[in-house]
Every structure is written in structure tokens, then in C-alpha cells.
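Table S4 entry, HNH endonuclease.
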Amino acid sequence: MDTARELSAQLATLLRRERSALAEFLVALADFDARRAWAELGYASLFHYLHRELGLSKGSAQYRKVAAELIQAVPAVIEPLRDGRLCFTTIIEVARVVDARNWEGALPRFYGLSRHEAAEVVVALAPHPAPPVRTVLTAVRGPGSAGSTVEPVAPPPGSSRSAALTPLTAERQRLHVTVSERFGRKLERLRDLRPDLSDDALLEAAVDLLLAKAEKRKGALTERPRASVRPSRDPRHIPAHVRREVWRRDGGCCQWRVASGEICGSTHALQLDHVVPLALGGESSPGNLRVLCAAHNLLAARRVLGDALMDRHAVPRARGAP
């Protein structure tokens, strides 16, 4: 059976082939468009040819159309697409601001970025002349309305927890989020109490309070730690001063080392992990503790305690969960 490293090498080879094939397709498509060959076949545009003749979805057809046009204007994008420095999903954003005059300085700024990150570069290079500043509350009819913004409410199945952030300028973004009727009433009350603050300032202040509370609870952070520590009879108990030390040392992010040697760095669902488990005599000391995300904490436990034991205690993962 192939090892994980061998399988990874095979995937890397396939990925290089995929990138190369895509680049070759786009080069050929750019030439096809330059010749207006789609017109000879009876199509009104390259987009219609891609969608109707090649059967691509409208979104896929649009991406490839824009890429073909960009290649004609800036042939230098071909190699970054081929070697993976430029992600294909960012091509729409790249085409907004990169042209034959500025590509040498502008194009490298998009290397290695996601589409959202590329959108942030776009607004930095070409800021919105008058970004809209407004708050719109629209009633949503029907079942499935959002719950309270304070009481934890599980999102509906298939829904996304993340709200959409759209960059407008280097300093401003637009937030799209669905809220409850109770949230709307609370916001109106806040507006009455603090008419000197804009809606985004009110929301940022609320986020700051919740963030400080969450970080304090997770890392036992406090401005006035106790002078003396009361011992606990529970061996699983981690003293607050130890939590603070480990949290600050690890920077509040997962310390698991991935195959490349880098740390995971996730800040999602963080937990304190005993390097030597308590079941094997490990202590709740800074030297035996580290911050891990939930996924790597479970992986660490499996490596030390074995799959058989962990399968009896691990919470089943929901279908579709990462």
C-alpha cells in the first residue's frame, strides 16, 4: 500500500498536470477568441460558444471568457496560471485592474491569493470613488427566522455561519448578514442610546465586548490575576494562571506541526491539549500543554491512545462536516 507521502506526491503531480492543461486550454481559447472563430460557428460571442457548444455552466464560461481576454491583453498571466502562483478563481478580480501598462507591478500582488483576498487588492489598486455607507433592515417572511444574537442558536441545516464581506476600499467592507427581529429592536435601542455612533461603530463595539469575553474565558485572561493559587483535587483541572501562560505563549492559535513543518495556526475551536495525556501520567503544566484546534487535538489523542479507544469516546462527526 502506498504511504501518505507517496500519495501526496502523486496528487502534486496530478495538480501540476491540471494547471498545465488549464493554461494550455486558455492559451488556445485566447487564440480562438482572437480569430473570432466562434462567429464562424454561428455563435454571438465567446461566452455563448463556451456555454452552449462546450456545455460549461454560465459561471465557468464567464471565468474562461475573462481569462482568454486577459491573456490577449496581458500574455504574462499564462505562466503564473501554469505554475499555480495565480489561482484561476481570482482571474475575474485580476482582470479588473491589470492591463498591459501596469501588469509588471500589479500582477504579482495577486499571487497565492483567494478570490476574497484578490478583491481586497483590487480595492487597494482602484478604490471605490464613493463607497456606500448605509444599513438596511429588511423583514424576512416565513419560517426559519434567525434567533437571538446573544443566545446561541444552531444554524439551519445546509446554511453557512459566515456572513459575506465584500471589500469596498482598503479600509472599508460591506457586511451582508441575516438577523432576527429582536436584533433589529436592540439595534434601534442602541441607536437611541448612542446617537453619536454609526451603526458599524455600534456593531464593532459589541464585537469587541464579545471577543474580549471569549478570549478571557478561553485563555483565562485577566488584568488582575490572583496572587495565590488555590490547589484543586481534580487532576483534569488546569489552573487559570497556567491557561494564561500557555495561551499567551502559543499566541492563541493551533500549534500542531503539519507535514511542511509549519504550524496549523487555526484560531477555530481551540482547546488545551496535554502532550503526555493525563491517562498516561501527564501533568497540567505549561511544559506539557499546548493550544490545538479541535481536529488536531483529536488527531493527537488518536496517535497516542489509539483509534479503538478514541472511537468509543469521540463524538460522531455530522454528515458534511469538514
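The longest strand covers residues 270-274.
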